[in-house]
Write a structure and sequence with these properties.
- The protein has 333 residues and is of the alpha/beta class.
- Helix content is 32%, strand content 20%.
- Strands 2, 3, 4, 5, 6, 7, 8, 10, 11 and 12 form a ten-stranded mixed sheet that branches.
- α10 runs parallel beside α11.
- The protein is globular.
- The structure holds threonylcarbamoyladenylate (TXA) and magnesium ion (MG).
C-alpha cells in the first residue's frame, strides 16, 4: 500500500467513514484514527500497530456535551475539569455505555474520552460525525510521533493517508484521569499536571502508584517499557550527575567507553518544561537514528510537567547510570 501525506480533511474523513484507519494530527502526538463505533475498523488499529488486545483505546469526541452519549454516572469533577481543560490534552475514564464496542475498551466497563484541541482533528470529527478511536500513531512500544514525517517512518506501507497538521505543540500524550471510587486518580501523567487538576477539583489527587488493593484503579496500558528507542537509553538521577559524567568522559575513556559512542541528550538547551516536552520524542527519535552505542539523559525535577517528562524518560530507558567518582555504574531495569 502506498502511504501519502495529505492536507485534505475531507479525504481523511472519507477514509474513516469507509472503515479504514488514518493518521491524524493532535496537539499531543499524532493518532491512528478509526470510527470508534465500527468494530472492524477498530480491529484494524490493533492490527496496524501490532498493539496487544488488552490495551484499550482513547475515544475522541468533538465536545464535552457528547460525553453522555458514550458514558454514564459522570462524576461532577469530570465537568469541572473538562470546563477548564477541554478541548485539550486530558482524557477522562468513565463508565461506558453499550454503544461503545468492547474492542475499543479491551473488554473493560470503562471508556476513555477526550476532546482534542487540534483544529484539523476537530474538523475531521465534524465531517465524520462519529467518535474517533485513536492511539498514538507508532508501532507498539515505540516512540510516539509528533510530526507527519515521523508517522511516515513508523507506518509507511501500512496505511493510506497521514493528515499533515504540522508539529504537535504539546509533544507528549494527554493526562489520563480516573474517577473510580470517588477518587481522582492520574493514570498517566501528561501536559495537564497534577497541580493543575488539584487546583480545579480542590481536593487531593492521587497517582496511579498510590492505588491500593482495596481501591484498585486499573489501566492495562500502563507498561513499564514504552516509547523506547532502539539504542539503549540510560538515565542519570540529576542533570548534575550527567554533567559530572560527561566531564569524566571528556578526560579519558572510562570502562571502555568512548565519548563518541555515546549520545547525550542535553535538555538545558530548552527554556522550561513546555519546550522540552514539545521536543522530547523527536529528540529521542533523532538521537536513536545516529546509531550510538548508548544514549545518556538526566531526569528533570519531578514537579508539574516534569512528572510526565520523567515518566516518558523512565519508560523509554533500559536502566540508570551513576558516577561514583571512579567509574560509571549501570543498573538495568
Ligand atoms: O494524547 C493522547 O492521549 C494520544 C492522542 C492520539 O490523543 N493518544 C494516546 O493513546 O496516547 P494511547 O493508546 O497511546 O494511550 C492510551 C492510554 C493507555 O495508557 C491506555 O491504557 C489508557 O489510555 N486507557 C484507555 N482506555 C482506558 C480505560 N478504559 N481505563 C484505563 N485506562 C485506559
Ligand atoms: Mg501510545
Amino acid at each position: 500500500m502506498e502511504t501519502r501525506i495529505i492536507n485534505s480533511v475531507e479525504l481523511a474523513a472519507e477514509e474513516i467513514l469507509s472503515g479504514n484507519v488514518v493518521a491524524l494530527p493532535t496537539e499531543t502526538v499524532y493518532g491512528l484514527g478509526a470510527d470508534a463505533l465500527n468494530e472492524d475498523a477498530v480491529l484494524k488499529i490493533y492490527e496496524t500497530k501490532k498493539r496487544p488486545d488488552f490495551n484499550p483505546l482513547i475515544v475522541h469526541v468533538p465536545d464535552i456535551s457528547e460525553f453522555e452519549k458514550y458514558a454514564e454516572n459522570i462524576h461532577p469533577d469530570v465537568y469541572k475539569l473538562a470546563d477548564f481543560f477541554s478541548p485539550g490534552p486530558i482524557t477522562f475514564i468513565l463508565k461506558k455505555k453499550s454503544i461503545i464496542p468492547d474492542i475499543v475498551t479491551a473488554g473493560l466497563d470503562t471508556v476513555a474520552l477526550r476532546v482534542p484541541y487540534h483544529e484539523l482533528f476537530k474538523f475531521v470529527l465534524r465531517l465524520t460525525k462519529t467518535p474517533i478511536a485513536a492511539p498514538s500513531a507508532n508501532m507498539f512500544g515505540r516512540i510516539s510521533p509528533t510530526a507527519a514525517a515521523e508517522v511516515m517512518k513508523e507506518l509507511r506501507g501500512k496505511i493510506k493517508y497521514i493528515l499533515d497538521g504540522g508539529k504537535s505543540t504539546v509533544g507528549i500524550e494527554s493526562t489520563v484521569v480516573s474517577f473510580e471510587g470517588g477518587r481522582v486518580t492520574i493514570l498517566r501523567h501528561g501536559f495537564i499536571t497534577k497541580e493543575d487538576i488539584e487546583k480545579v477539583v480542590g481536593r487531593k489527587v492521587y497517582e496511579y502508584e498510590e492505588s491500593s488493593e482495596d481501591n484498585k484503579v486499573t489501566s492495562p496500558g500502563l507498561l513499564k517499557s514504552h516509547y523506547a528507542p532502539l539504542t539503549p537509553l540510560y538515565l542519570a538521577e540529576h542533570t548534575f550527575d550527567l554533567k559530572r559524567l560527561i566531564d569524566e568522559l571528556d578526560d579519558e575513556k572510562i570502562e571502555g567507553l568512548e565519548k563518541d559512542s555515546i549520545g547525550i541528550m542535553d535538555f538545558s538547551v530548552y527554556d522550561g518544561f513546555r519546550e522540552l516536552s514539545k521536543n522530547l520524542f523527536s529528540d529521542l527519535r533523532n538521537i536513536d537514528e545516529r546509531h550510538y552505542k548508548m544514549i545518556f539523559a538526566a531526569k528533570v525535577k519531578n514537579v508539574k510537567l516534569g512528572r510526565a517528562i520523567n515518566d516518558r524518560l523512565e519508560k523509554a530507558s533500559v536502566g540508570t547510570i551513576k558516577y561514583n567518582g571512579k567509574k560509571i555504574v549501570f543498573k538495568d531495569k
